[in-house]
Amino acid sequence: MEKYLVIIEKAENNYSAFSSDVTGCVATGTSVEDTTAAMKEAMEFHLEDMSEMPHAKGISQHINDGIFRNGEVAEVFFITEVEVQIPHNA
Q1: Which candidate, 88, 86, 89, places its Cα nearest to that of 40?
Q2: CA separation (Å) from 84 to 1, 29, 35, 87?
Q3: Which parts of 19-87 are beta strand (E)?
Q4: pLDDT tens digits, residue range 27-75?
Q5: Is this structure's pTM higher than 0.70?
Q6: Is 43 within 8 Å of 56 (Cβ atoms)?
Q7: What is the distance between the alpha carbons of residues 84 and 59, in angstroms, rounded to a whole number?
Q8: pLDDT-derived band of residue 82, with 50, 70 and 90 as boundaries?
Q9: C-beta neighbour count of 23 within 10 angstroms
Q10: Largest Cα–Cα distance in the chain?
């Protein structure tokens, strides 16, 4: 299992999530908990079809890389990690 950084942003009527480790994988939900669960499911599905697994950097590496200083993250956001089961064919 790998732990991938997930950023959850508060929108007007819901929450949205993305991971800079897994490009193109996003999810939404009505609460932080729902969004986290939806993102975990989306990431597992997304990773099944990838020929090369992205490396999970972890929160400290993302902070060092400056992901939270580029102005693209919403003012209200939550940071978490999602533990994802890596497919056996990876």
Answers
A1: 86
A2: 6, 18, 15, 9
A3: 26-29, 77-84
A4: 999 999 999 999 999 998 888 877 666 767 666 665 656 555 554 544 5
A5: no
A6: no
A7: 15
A8: confident
A9: 10
A10: 39
Q: Which two tokens stand for residue 74?
A: 């919403």
Asked if 68 contacts 77 with a C-beta cutoff of 8 angstroms, the reply is: no
Q: Are 83 and 3 in contact (CB under 8 A)?
A: yes
Residues forming beta bridges with residue 9, ordered by sequence position: 16, 77
Non-local CB neighbours of 50 within 8 Å, separated by 6+ positions: 90
| Cα angle, residue 60 at apex, residues 57 and 65 outer, rounded to 5° | 75
Helix (H, G, I), strand (E, B) or coil at 43: helix
Residue for token pair 């299992």: 1
Q: Are 43 and 4 in contact (CB under 8 A)?
A: yes
